[in-house]
Design brief:
The chain has 215 residues and is α/β, with parallel strands linked by helices. It is 24% helix and 29% strand. It has a single domain, classed as Alpha-Beta Barrel (TIM Barrel). The protein is built from 5 helices and 11 strands.
């Protein structure tokens, strides 16, 4: 069975988007080569370095699936994140397939810079959180797009992300800037500007797991 380098696995509640508040088993892949504009304030910096060869960091897909079932039960949610989980595309595909076989529901969060190339319906719920402009995205369709309202994000960037992609839902989420400060005003201004420009589909969301003090 294929081995995957994992930074951590834990049970918590999803904080943003459609599944906000949903209990899930989180699987954080190790490694992220995405040089995004907010890398310096990434809230999971330990997951950024590329995987090394220490065997205790590698888990088989079967081990991961069994841990998920023990944590959230058959029919529960497994949430695959990172890092950038699609960097290990083969491992990700195997984990998605075996999770479905075990009766789990699957959500994946990705930067959208790598296309998973799976047919609709076989990838599970795909959440793209872009850290770039639409012309650089490789994954332009999925369940939801969650745009982090970082200082570099303009109304023009958000507008073009909507026009150049096809997601079921679109969200804007404040980002934690440090020193107990969130980009709430940036998020609200973006939502209001986009509405005035004829894009009422955008919804406001937040990282509620952090508000509640959950992991």
């Amino acid at each position: 069975m294929e081995m995957i380098y994992i930074n951590e696995m834990f049970r918590s509640h999803q904080g943003t988007g459609r599944c906000a508040g949903q209990l899930q088993f989180f699987v954080r892949f190790q490694g992220c080569s995405v040089k995004c504009p907010i890398r310096h304030i990434c809230d999971e910096p330990q997951s950024l370095p590329e995987p090394h060869t220490r065997t205790q960091d590698a888990f088989s897909v079967d081990q991961i699936v069994q841990e998920a079932i023990k944590s959230v039960g058959t029919g529960g949610w497994i949430h695959i994140t990172g890092g950038e989980p699609l960097q290990n595309l083969s491992g990700w595909k195997t984990l998605v397939r075996e999770s479905f076989k075990a009766g789990l529901r699957v959500q994946t969060q990705t930067s959208g810079l790598i296309d998973h190339c799976l047919p609709i319906g076989r990838s599970g719920m795909i959440t793209v959180s872009p850290k770039t402009t639409v012309d650089k995205l490789k994954l332009k369709t999925g369940s939801e797009l969650v745009l982090v309202a970082a200082p570099w994000v303009s109304t023009n960037i958000a507008r073009n992300l909507f026009l150049g992609t096809t997601f079921s839902e679109y969200y804007i989420a404040p980002v934690f800037l440090g020193n107990n400060e969130w980009s709430n005003k940036i998020a609200l201004d973006l939502i209001n500007d986009l509405f005035e420009e004829g894009q009422p589909e955008w919804k406001l969301t937040h990282q509620i797991h952090k508000i509640f003090g959950a992991k």
